[in-house]
User: Fold this.
Amino acid sequence: MENLLPYLLTGACTGVLSGLLGVGGGLIIVPVLAFTFAAAGFPAAHVMQMALGTSLATIIFTSVSSTHAHHHRGGVSWTLVQRIIPGVIIGTLLGACLVSQMSTFWLKGIFVIFEFYVGTQMLLEFCPNPSGRHPSDTVMLFAGTLIGCLSSLVGIGGGTLSVPFLLCCNYPMRQAIGTSSAIGLPIAISASAGYIFAGQRIPDLPSLSAGFIYLPALAGIALSSVITAPFGAWLTHRLPVNILRKLFALLLYAVSARMAWSLM
Assistant:
C-alpha cells in the first residue's frame, strides 16, 4: 500500500503557502518530489521528469479553485486568456517534448536557476514598469509560447512569468494576478497531457504512473492543497506577509542550493 503521508504533508504546506503568499506550489512540490522519488528508488534517469509532471498535474486542481475565486471577483480577463492560450499550448507541449529528451542533471540545473530567479524577485520585490500599451496578437503568441515552455520545463503554473508580463503590458495588478491564475489551467492541462504521452514508452517507471505523472503523489498533494489553500488566504490578513515573502525567498535559496549540491 502506497504511503500517502509525505504527499499529503507536501500538499498541505504548498496549499498554505500558495494562499498566504500567492506563489505557485511547483516551487516547493518539484524539489520535494525529486528528493522523495529518489529516496523511494525511482529510476534515477527519470526522477526529475516524474517530479515535474506530477507537479504540473496537481496545478490543474489548484488552478480551477483559484480561477473560480478570481472570476467571482471580476479579476479575470477572459479575452486575454483566449489570446494567449494558443501560444501556451504550443509552448507547454514543446517543453514536455524537450523534457523527455533531457537528463535529470540538466533539468535540475534549469530548475535551480529558475528557483534562484524567483527567490531574488521576491526578495527585491521587483515589479516591472508598464510599457504603456497592450500587446499585439503576435506578441501574445510569442509570450504564451515562452511562458508555456518554461512552465513545462520547471513544473509550475506560470504565475511567476505571466504576472510580470501582464504588468509590463500595462494591465492592473488585480487583473494580472486573476488572469494569470486562469492561464495556469491550460498550462497544467496541456503540459500534463504532454508528460503522459512522453512517458508512455518508458519501460521502468513505477506501476502507479500515467506516463511521467505519479498518481499517488498527485492524489495526496491535490487533496490536501485544495483543503489548506483557504487557510493560507485567511492567514494573509493576520500575518506580516511582506516579511514572510522575504523569508520564503530565503527558503527558495536554500532549496535551490540543496538541489545544486546534488548535482555535484
Summary: DSSP finds ten helices and two strands in the chain. The beta strands are 209-210, 213-214. The radius of gyration is 17 Å.
